[in-house]
Design brief:
The structure is a homotrimer of 423-residue chains. Chain A is α+β, with helices and mostly antiparallel strands and 423 residues long. Helices cover 28% and strands 22% of the residues of chain A. Chain A is elongated. Chains in contact: A-B, A-C, B-C.
Chain lengths: 423, 423, 423
């Protein structure tokens, strides 16, 4: 079985669970993740103040349906948890079709799909269904039932740390609050879990802190409880919607010039990078997605299912994450210990013995580039970008030169995180 | 009647007057402007030293013509004031055609058009005519007459102030020294007058100072007499050639990065922005035109007439000016009073209650952008540019957030005008 | 005879000599250059330590060949010095074809061309030949002979100084170590020699120091012996491959923003600019070539011959060098002595007397640009770039304005060369 197929199995296991920002669905999800990695589960009481927000009451559903006057369930939570608007309050009532329709959400432009709707912070209830189903409902009286509890309880999130050698951290975060939506975000949970497991096998420079948290309120809660820790975060990545056929997309952090920030522009809407990148924290956290949120029609609908997410795309994302780790781990600035003229590479066995050939061999080019820019002010990533060479090649050249005593690691620049003194 | 039609009527009223850098034509022009707005008229004596220049003698024309030996006027100032080179000294003489031709200016490439020529600072005289007319003149003796006075008098300019609430100013300047040229610059005079009248009806942050001045010597004279005032100028706009069908063009100030400077490059030639932007003042003054000077063939010819200037283009320029005012008035930097994580917009009624929808509504996006960049270092214009959103939408979002107590206006940055300490 | 034809004759005279990084070929080359200009020849003993390198033993060849068993020379150094790998150690031996082939270098992709190979720092020997010749060799025994000496001696280089008026220097360097390769680098030697001769006829601001040195080890040796001098170098140019039909290409210095650095990107491989631009010196030295090294197929092969190099291209390069000198000599920053508003150019005879014309005459535009940017912070090159005007026009305008007392030369900025305090 390929890594991609294993990831898809994990997505399929997570898919049926009714998750929301609180409740047993989150706990079941974290339990499954716990089979992959050792997870520390946190429970934060309803009512806890977290910055401008308050941890909400906990929501759990036993059953929910709409039935016609013959008692037949025409909309049924048991068939798909998307049918119930998330955080619907308990209700049991009869009503005519016209009144019912004011509580029904559909997607007229995709008549066969069921939308995903939430009402976390405004008390209410509602059902979601396909336009075709609603259009086919005959006039008459209907009975609605939401057998749910919305009561003081807890907000639940999971945390996992892969140990590194320095006291600096890389944050990897994914949200665990969406119900049966495969790409958004069973895919992110699966890739993050597997990434954590793979990193455990490596000797690492950074600690890697993995967060499995409900969106928005979860990251806000984590930040409120960990303000003293954010100064250690050097890089961060939010993983979401990473299993669809779209191309990999990286969204820059607010800073826009952080190491992880060299692909696309930052926009303030999106996933939890909004909280990590709010101006009071300004952490170097970007977001890795495939199809960007809301850019694919299946987004937040029943069509975001196990067919949309494919093993090969999950695997591609995992490999991209590992590549990012590779660069973050190896990226450093060096100083050339022999800065006046080039050192003689040949006498150290680092240069081809026969000259006169076109001598454009990339390995030698990479060494010359590293030597030239090793002034403490250019990282290997800078060198790779300026030289137009693969990062791996440049890192390998630097290692060879360091091994030959020609380079030394530059003293790290002063910590520049504005959050370092926060809290 | 549309605003454009009203502007065109004003242009038509200004068009026939024989203006130059001094003289009664300027006074008549300012009198017409005075019907629109309350104008303070200044008279500066000939011989007054203004920086490197001297206010010239005043020039006034009663009549001017070239007649053939039968006494028939073949070139006649009464038919068009363009026929006489501006600042021609008095003359009355007979001469053969060959000698006369050395005093005649034509446009061979546009044989039916009469060029506009001046000789302000080199004493002389001349006539302008169409190439076709000159080609048709039979050999023979001609009589020339310039019945003009060039004598000590005054340089005249007008000034109008629309009051604002702070002590900072926006300068709006146009030149009033061109004779029967409709686009250059009856159009600028008309738009500036109307803009001043419209601003009087508004509650404004800035004072708006309108100058109606002869080109070059007028702006130099105004600057020489108002050095102590230039430190208050925050923004400025020169209006010229604003009624032709060309697209609106904005020329940056010398600084190149002033607020009003985000469209095109600065070039040192042009209108009075050259003086406002000379390195000793370096004011943030740009220039708004439609067809840029000398970029349309009718420029400085008799074809720059009332047909070239159209009501719809005048109106479009006026609306653009009002939009610029809108942005200048509303552009500020804010600080997010809740910088750690996003504030909860929903509990303040600023966010749609039902979540899960694609949630890309521009208004909510604008609020998230403003919150994210409200660190005192980004103006609303910065936010609009980075977000790719309309300025109005961003300003409205900021107002809503300020109303909810989530934003405060940042303390203004220190005045950076190098002219602040001048004079 | 055109300048280009004269340069081509000089290239043809240099072409047959067997040059290497040391030896009599370099001395003969410098002797020919000595007919053009007065050359100071330096001899540096083998074994001298120069930074990380050691001056190698001197190599001289009397004869070298491969003969078949009938005694017929099948590969002959006398026919072309490219046939012998540079720095081959002496050998005389019989061997079968298979063993011989391990010592033969060919270019399979260009079966008629002979490659150029060296083995300066790894002791060995070898021959270079066309693939077609090697393919035609019948089996059998062959005799090889390298009648050469590799022994303590000297590294030879030449230096020539054209005097200027300040104590600042421009470095012009070319390599003299390649055997019969016309473009790389007889062309560079010829253009540098002629440039030096032409500059001697001029009154110059800078000293121009010309180096005729073996590649890499030569520039390293020169830098090691002249560390106290590098602080005076304001600009530098390496000339190589300047006679082929490729377009002129300029490679920026490491700094990337030096005055001579406004055309293309810097890459760390190439000619001796690598040494001058190593981080310990970081001199503002770029490299002027036509086809960039290794970018033309004839590079380092027998096809880099007297047909590849054309008189018109040599002349074009020489003219480009003179233009660079023109700009370096004239480029300065000025301060406007009349910074408030424009000065009145007309009363100083610097402005056309008749106004109203389109007035876009470039000369007047250049004067307005220079006046506007003459704030001590913009050089004439900055002005020319921003104005989109020819440098010569801008320099002429500045001279006219300086002559009229409107400009003064700005005090030069502090020396910014990090090498100023080196050594």
């Amino acid at each position: 079985m390929t890594a991609g197929q294993e990831l898809h199995e994990l997505v399929a296991e997570l898919y049926p669970i009714c998750r929301s920002i609180t409740g047993d669905g989150v706990r079941q999800t974290l339990e499954i993740v716990g089979h992959e990695i050792d997870l520390e589960v946190h429970e934060v009481p309803s009512g806890t103040q977290v910055f401008d927000w308050t941890v909400p009451r906990e929501w759990n559903v036993r059953d929910a349906w709409v039935a016609d006057d013959s008692g037949r369930r025409v909309i049924d939570f048991q068939a798909s948890n998307l049918h119930l608007m998330s955080y619907s309050v308990p209700v049991r009532a009869w009503m005519p079709l016209a009144e019912l329709k004011r509580r029904l959400y559909t997607l007229p432009e995709y008549p066969d799909w069921v939308p995903y709707r939430t009402s976390y912070y405004a008390e209410g209830w509602g059902f979601c269904a396909s336009q075709r189903l609603v259009d086919g409902l005959p006039d008459g009286e209907y009975e609605v039932c939401v057998d749910a509890t919305l009561a003081d309880g807890h907000l639940t999130y999971g945390e996992h740390l892969v140990q590194g050698q320095t006291d600096e951290e890389v944050l990897v975060s994914c949200h665990v609050c969406h119900p049966s939506l495969a790409n958004d975000n069973c895919s992110g949970i699966a890739v993050a879990s597997r990434l954590a497991r793979l990193l455990a096998e490596r000797r690492l420079r950074y600690h890697y802190r993995f967060l499995f948290i409900p969106g928005t309120i979860g990251s806000i809660t984590w930040l409120a409880r960990n303000e003293e820790r954010v100064g250690r975060i050097r890089h961060g990545l939010v993983l979401a919607c990473v299993g669809d056929p779209g191309l990999l997309t990286y969204k820059r952090s607010r800073r826009g010039d952080a190491e992880v920030d060299r692909v696309v522009d930052f926009t303030p809407y999106g996933y939890d990078e909004r909280q990590f990148c709010s101006p009071g924290f300004d952490l170097p956290v970007g977001c890795l997605t495939r199809s960007s949120y809301a850019d694919y029609p299946q987004y937040h609908t029943s069509a975001d299912d196990l067919d949309l997410v494919r093993p090969e795309h999950l695997q591609d994302t995992l490999e991209a994450c590992l590549e990012v780790v590779e660069v973050l781990e190896a990226n450093r600035s060096y100083v050339n210990l022999n800065p006046k003229c080039e050192p003689q590479l040949g006498k150290r066995g680092l240069y081809g013995a026969i000259g006169g050939r076109s001598d454009t061999q990339q390995r030698q080019m990479a060494m010359l580039w590293v030597l030239n820019l090793a002034d403490g002010g250019h990282s290997l990533l800078d060198v790779a970008e300026r030289a137009g060479l693969a990062f791996g090649l440049v890192a390998e050249a630097a290692a060879a030169l360091e091994g030959a005593g020609l380079l030394a690691i530059a003293r790290p620049a002063a910590v520049d995180s504005p959050a370092a003194g926060a809290g």
